[in-house]
Amino acid sequence: MTTSETLPQGVTVPQGFSAASITAGIKPSGNPDMALVVNQGPRFDAAAVFTRNRVVAAPVKVTQAALKDGNPNELKAAVFNAGNANACNGAQGMTDAKKMAEDTALALGVDVSDIAVCSTGLIGELMPMDKVHGGIDKLAKNLGTEQSHGAGAAAAIMTTDTVPKQTVVHGQGWTVGGMGKGVGMMAPSLATMLVCITTDAQASPAALDAALRKACDVTFNTLDVDGSTSTNDTVIVMANGASGVEPSQEELDEAILKACADLADQLQADAEGVTKRVKITVKGTGSDAQALNAARTLGRDNLFKCAMFGSDPNWGRVLAAVGMADAEMDPDNISVFFNNQPVCVESTGAPGAREVDLSGADIDVLVDLGTGGEGTAFVRTTDLSHDYVEINSAYSS
Amino acid sequence: MTTSETLPQGVTVPQGFSAASITAGIKPSGNPDMALVVNQGPRFDAAAVFTRNRVVAAPVKVTQAALKDGNPNELKAAVFNAGNANACNGAQGMTDAKKMAEDTALALGVDVSDIAVCSTGLIGELMPMDKVHGGIDKLAKNLGTEQSHGAGAAAAIMTTDTVPKQTVVHGQGWTVGGMGKGVGMMAPSLATMLVCITTDAQASPAALDAALRKACDVTFNTLDVDGSTSTNDTVIVMANGASGVEPSQEELDEAILKACADLADQLQADAEGVTKRVKITVKGTGSDAQALNAARTLGRDNLFKCAMFGSDPNWGRVLAAVGMADAEMDPDNISVFFNNQPVCVESTGAPGAREVDLSGADIDVLVDLGTGGEGTAFVRTTDLSHDYVEINSAYSS
């Protein structure tokens, strides 16, 4: 199973998927802002994972319903827009999201219950449905299976992203492609993360669902830049069996994981105002859940994140942060390693700790909570920089 | 009961308390860095609250022991230093903190078990005990009961504080004084918050403890600037009965609350890099604890805090943040008010929401989670500014 940046990337690389992108005028910038990904069959198996936020945008509700209604666990197309999240718009928001599915179904001649809708952008602004309506018609007329069609779709779903994000994974006679948008979970008001994965493998909805959930747990769900979770987060996988190959669950798991990991890396690297990519691993506590709680507590600590921005091996902030975590620990036996060098042993500074070099873009942090327990987990986060404040304090960014 | 900024302030205003401050050379700046507050009796009743962090600095352990050992719930003096937190220094840290208590007891001719030790500053650096030892001798020789002695002590315990913090509350024939240091909980690596309250009222340790805990719950514990809790946080109250007046529990509660509230206001106003003071109230959920969880979740959300810095009435970020809180809510019936103006009703934008003026230094946020439940709580937080990042990314600030 191979993946490479030099190979053609994106949702149209697997057989039997077409895509289109157009400028509907939703983004003030005038950049492309709508995309369509169509599964041409022969099969239409699908699975998805959604935001855990209780405040859920209308398009998410429409997509959740599409996977249950009509042909359960089937999708024939996903329509995307950027620039407006259609979140917190009340009954009108639901009406508009359903209309987007209806227009798309009509344009493609398929059932409305097989259409996913994904929106990303500002919360609390009504969708400009006149522009969207015309946009969907144009999308349907511009569909194509070239790599450039997929690339156009990946660009059209960008918001504060600085680069489009695509991936490809090649199995034995079958392929997984994908696109994503998002800037490291840092902008939930921009309805942060959308991912669409396509494959020409033959795979049941249950197999897709299992592979996708496992992959998300160790990729997108570990990307915890500021603890925020958007109202619109959606990850969709569509499989059409066009390759005639039915991979084993293990092979499918591996390919979906590789695609998600590649996109998650790109999301983290493009997080708003990021100068450092920080991986935090916690061990030596009672359970994996406790380790995850401690890793997240540290990953969300602004003082720690500012220290990372300053390339400052300030391990005291690590102890102060994890000391508040809901995890078993021995307060007198905590160890901290920066880039594999011990900076704190038995909760006390190690020789040379202040001289550890954190000037590189990648920083590895390991915290052993010292109980001897088997619990372990990791999260990936970023530093807290001037640019983060700048980007996120501009009026309704 | 009166309090006023124009009255003399500080720990020496109540009868029977003396204080001193000196420069021991712990702070690189050469500013005063040690202080001593002595209770001259006749009574020595005391109570204290401490950090909830599991990683607890050595001086905190010494003070906790002092309140249990020898004469339980009595303190005759508290010795302070700034510039070094004596946290995460292992066995040597405990030896040094005990030595500070011993030196102070010897210099004052009192029992070591009646000495509180409070340190604030960098974590993980050994205390320069030669400087501290000489400093304690000088402190004991410089004690005085003038208002200037208390003011000197308040200045000596500052770290990144830009102004000293003192308070006074006058009852009928008795007085409460106090000093504090801290910058709105924003710098746990600087061992954020120390408060010392003195009173010449006659009050039992139990009465003091009850008054102090109630006061802290609605003052210092609501100051939740970035969710951080220091290794050294300590709030001490000492009562000597020198006034001969024994206030009722209600009167004591009220006076201690006023003193704590005044100091908490000063801490919040002096938080690092602050341009906005934000009060968040949450109601309409299942319990006060749930309301507090939601208020804290919002108060810690960096995107919301960046919006406050930008005076941006971005209520979508409020919904996205509280949607992740561990609190009962009706996701379709959340209301948000900025400065008493509705910006979101039934989880949908209110007319004129984007035009609400947040340009002032104080912003009031009210969130109704829409369940009709009785739970309510508030926290006080700040914005997230360029200066916050600047101050906290400098090397081992």
Automatic annotation (TrEMBL), chains A, B:
The gene is argJ. The active site is at T192 (nucleophile). GO terms for molecular function: L-glutamate N-acetyltransferase activity; L-glutamate N-acetyltransferase activity, acting on acetyl-L-ornithine as donor. It is found in: Cytoplasm. The keyword Ribonucleoprotein does not apply. Substrate binds at T159, K181, T192, E272, N392, S397. The keyword Methyltransferase does not apply. Keywords: Acyltransferase, Amino-acid biosynthesis, Arginine biosynthesis, Autocatalytic cleavage, Cytoplasm, Multifunctional enzyme, Transferase. It catalyses: N(2)-acetyl-L-ornithine + L-glutamate = N-acetyl-L-glutamate + L-ornithine; L-glutamate + acetyl-CoA = N-acetyl-L-glutamate + CoA + H(+). Its EC number is 2.3.1.35, 2.3.1.1. Belongs to the ArgJ family. Gene3D superfamilies: ArgJ beta chain, C-terminal domain, L-amino peptidase D-ALA esterase/amidase. It comes from the Bacteria. GO terms for biological process: L-arginine biosynthetic process; ornithine biosynthetic process. InterPro entries: Arg_biosynth_ArgJ (IPR002813), ArgJ-like_dom_sf (IPR016117), ArgJ_beta_C (IPR042195). This is Arginine biosynthesis bifunctional protein ArgJ. Heterotetramer of two alpha and two beta chains. It holds the Pfam family ArgJ. GO terms for cellular component: cytoplasm.
